[in-house]
Amino acid sequence: MTQWNPVWLVEIDGVEYTDAVLANLVIRSGRTNIYEQAQAGYVNIQLIDVNQTAIPVNINSTIGVSIKNTSNTFVPIFGGNVVDIGLEVRDVGSTMFTQTYNITALGALARLPKVIFTDALARDFDGDQIYEVLQSVLFASWAQVPGSLTWATYDPATTWANAGNTGLGEIDRPGNYDLSARAGSADPIDVYSLVAALATSGLGYLYEDAQGRIGYADSTHRTNYLAANGYVDLDARHARAAGLRIDTRVGDVRNAITIKYGTTSQNDVSDSDPASIAIYGNLGQVITTTLHDSADATAQAAFYLSLRANPQPIFSEISFDLTNPEIDNADRDKLINVFMGEAIALQNLPLNMNSGTFQGFVEGWSFRASYNQLSVTLLLSPLAYSLQAMRWNDVPVTETWASVSPTLDWANATIVA
Fold first, then answer.
1. Model confidence at 17: pLDDT above 90
2. Half-sphere exposure of 61 (CA within 13 A, CB side)
3. Count of CB atoms within 10 A of residue 266's CB?
4. Phi/psi of residue 198, each to 5°?
5. Over 70: is that where the pLDDT of 259 sits?
6. CA angle 375, 378, 382 (to 5 degrees)
């Protein structure tokens, strides 16, 4: 039995704000299904102010939300920019009144659809092309630095590589797939649509980290993470029982795949799974990429079929009340640190729900908080929808042949750990 109550920290434009009470909070991050890229993270904060003092928040102010974990360390769970501010009178007494601030903020992905990209891109791997696009948007140019800024007032800990970074996180570079060049004469496109298409071409995904920065995970990112870190083991008996839900849908089946590839996606290859078609009918999908090589397009078509020709259960909702004393501190801290692509192993489910166990990856999550309460709800995709075989140079250099199972055959050696 471990007692824990949430302690919050809200920073506005880098300054801690402690004069108001956090009454309610909702955070949503990630994506709702594996067929789309992540959308911008979202936070709505309700602060109660009893002093009638102006909270120093403006449209486009940076905001960070952190919570103290069981080791008394503040852990960030959201970062973004303010897009909406509401102020209303809450209660009125004979000598004073209280007010409520409602603040809504979005993560860095929200900025991308509003920026138009018109430049050329050289032929390169997926991670490098995505980095090239994002750094042009998320790094300030020399001309954008305020003229009044002096070296003495600049953060001395900032490195030259990160100076002026306004939202670029970790990008897996170079990536795993060779993508075609983009001509400078190509039609203008918004940056979100462009990098989402590049991520899809590379079988990877965009995400926002806990500070709201944009990252990119390539096609073998989850395989490598699982090999290095294993699963976070959670007991489903500690979850909120109401709403615990697994969905198995024919809409997730893909048994006839066409991959379009080339500079303008002018070429295509197709593949199908006759056995799946015989059971579920023809459930096809056309996936548009800018892959350069037909061999990669053919391999991607086979990859989609191998994982999705048959339905897999998806954990569409499981919620944990983090103040529940039955949750131990280690699990509580791991849930506070949830991120897109985290590997989860659930035990002790009802036996008629995937035989009582579920292994998968976090795709999306939400935090909900009120006074002295905090819960997190996870959406999990099955393991099989994500894993790609390791590439030879992904295997840790410290790995030895002796550590690999002697019964592992080459056909199943997708992870070495």
1. no
2. 17
3. 9
4. -65, -40
5. yes
6. 160
